[in-house]
Amino acid sequence: MKALLHKGMAAAPEKYLAHLITEEERTHFEEQGYLYIPNALSTEMREQLINAVDTLHNNALANGRATPGSHWGWSDFLGADDALLNLVDLPTTLPKVWGILGWNIYLYHAHMHVKPPAASDAEEGEGWLEWHQDSGRVNIELETNPRPRLSLKVGYFLTDVSEPGRGNFYIRPGSHLSDMDVPLAEIARDPREATADDVPDDAMPVCVEPGTAVLFDRRLWHSRSPNHSNITRKALFYGYGYRWIRPKDEMSVEVLYDRCDPIRRQLLGAATRNNGRYVPSEDDVPLRGWLIDNLGDNPAYAMGPRHA
Ligand SMILES: O=C(O)CCC(=O)C(=O)O
Prior knowledge:
The chain is of the alpha+beta class.
């Protein structure tokens, strides 16, 4: 059965307009590098998302791509379940994303993580992810200081991480503005699960209720931490960047285009031509048209008074 065409933002602008970024939120994000959005997911959405994550994880366990009791991460899942696809233009978070980055954006990266309770024989401190800024060689090859933002991620916490020790996401507030050493000698690296006994003094666990979204600047130094609870932590991360940034994951999204509205297609990376990512036509960036229709004739208004 062919899936129904998603009606999209044009059908319900008020749902998005209710969540425009406030000046207080913008200031917090600019200064601290992150922003909490409580209740970004309804209970029903959260349950659907947990179901979708569990199904993919169980498939991976069945075919040997995941190991029982071990951390598992996965990408290229947007077509697997509508609940996962619907996060691409979620009314509670997308207005904050365009409010920070503007309208020439798309989803360049998405990954999910399932982190079970640590094994009883786990070493002290095992289960940290190496502290990192996102985007690998971007942090080596860009010459300015601080490095530019370029992208941000929205983390959705599906399970209860309201207390530390539950495999929490960790951040160093404000660290996005101070460049720190990156391993210049290496060709490249993605952060690895590791034993880390040197948690920085300014590190903070992100303790949030299930259904909270956390926006963070890609430059914010961050990590994942050991899970000493009896709750398996489940989280999703959606990365938005400018349309001229290349995708970071395998993303089989073109097959979804014919059931998406134009804005969702933009957010999934559609372009009229390659140059349309750098020099967009109206058809490349329907999000801009939506902002003009709903917020006034200058779409930069969507980013707030500083841009007006
Ligand atoms: O799973 C986590 O808490 C960390 C995720 C992360 O490091 C990332 O999105 O780059």
